[in-house]
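Notes taken during the Thursday session

The instructor put the following on the board and asked us to keep it in front of us for the whole hour. The protein is Probable membrane transporter protein. We were told not to look anything up and to reason only from what is written here. First, the residues (239 in total):
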Amino acid sequence: MDFVILFLVIIVAASILQTSTGFGFSIMATPFLLLMFEPSEAIQINLVLSLVISLALIRKIRRDIDVAILKRLIMGSSFGLIAGIGVFLMVNTDQLKLAVSIVILLLTLLLMLSFRMKQTNRRDIFTGGISGALTTSIGMPGPPLLLYFAGTETKKEKLRATTLAFYLFVYLTSLFVQVIFAGTDRTVWISSGLALPLVVIGLFLGQKLFKWVSQSVFKVITYIILLFTGCYLLIESAL
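Then, after some discussion, the predicted structure tokens were revealed:
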């Protein structure tokens, strides 16, 4: 029963966060899913449910998508996705988490100290590549996008829409790559199916929350999520 309750709470909370900000499902859900499932199962459940959220929202937010940036993110991720599955199969995951956590924490501190960067085509492609690699390796595409968009002070509407549109490609491709190279099982699909009603609840509540969140509050939420992610990965890699 405790397992079921924890699963319910995680999926609803992560769905609300993903819907209201455009990121956060994998950041919030993956750490807890890893406590309940095998790594490949946790990553694939995350991919399936995140893909469902992106599909459900894309029609409502399509006008806010920056198509030019989206194309470059996808271009970069096409290379990153293959690199990421190689890392997942061959490299020590704890070492990868340690490196990623340090980078996230350092960059987040710089952003909090008002460090900003200019958006360029090359940086779009590079960010997409890193995001793709982290998707197939540890199931977390969000941190690179979040850091980049926060550093370029992207408006919350464009951030959410472009990120969710990017997820449509990267999650679908990552799921395909994961199933081909790492395999899958019934647990992934049964658990994902049971979670769908919870995702619908999260979609409804997240849409309401997005309308109430100002740009300044959105920025604070961004920093909190990044710090949480960095600290989690750091602790996880040390255990």
